[in-house]
Design brief:
The chain has 142 residues and is an alpha+beta fold. It has two domains: 66 residues, Ribosomal protein L11/L12, N-terminal domain (Ribosomal protein L11, N-terminal domain), CATH 3.30.1550; 65 residues, Arc Repressor Mutant, subunit A, CATH 1.10.10. The strands form two sheets. A three-stranded antiparallel β-sheet has the order 1-2-3. A two-stranded parallel sheet has the order 4-5. A hairpin with a 4-residue loop joins strand 2 and strand 3.
């Protein structure tokens, strides 16, 4: 079997189980000659259990116009907003706190995100999540 050559890697954030061939999928994959409907069917089938969440996907496109994709974990700000029960982060994070999360919630998010973070251990991952929370105006309490 001949080895396929990778022509592009495209990263897209999509709603789980509810992707459509309209933008951003069509605009990201269309120029590479990928059948967007086929990708949408496979993505929606793979993410049906996570419906309602944002699930990033990394699509690897090969020279024969075939593709494969890897699902990632939800973005950290999305998980923090869900844990704090807020719509969006603070526009002025130093002055205005918009919500709070517990250290246990931060640790749970860090465990969930561990495979996608560039952290060596759980403590480093927790510090990364706490930094994201701080930049969103979310306080981390005991």
């Amino acid at each position: 079997m001949a080895k396929r050559r990778v022509t592009a890697v495209v990263k897209i954030n999509l709603n789980a189980g509810a992707a459509t061939p309209a933008p951003p999928v069509g605009t990201a994959l269309g120029p590479h000659g990928i059948q967007t409907m086929e990708f949408v069917k496979q993505y929606n089938a793979a993410t049906e259990a996570q419906r309602g969440q944002v699930v990033p996907v990394e699509v690897t496109i090969y020279d024969d116009r075939s593709f494969s994709f890897v699902l990632k974990t939800s973005p950290t700000p999305v998980l923090l907003r869900q844990a704090a029960g807020i719509e969006k982060g603070s526009a002025t994070n130093k002055k205005t706190q918009v919500g709070t999360v517990t250290k246990e919630q931060v640790a749970e998010i860090a465990r969930t995100k561990m495979q996608d973070l560039n952290a060596y251990d759980l403590d480093a991952a927790i510090r990364q999540i706490e930094g994201t929370a701080r930049s969103m105006g979310i306080a981390v309490v005991d």
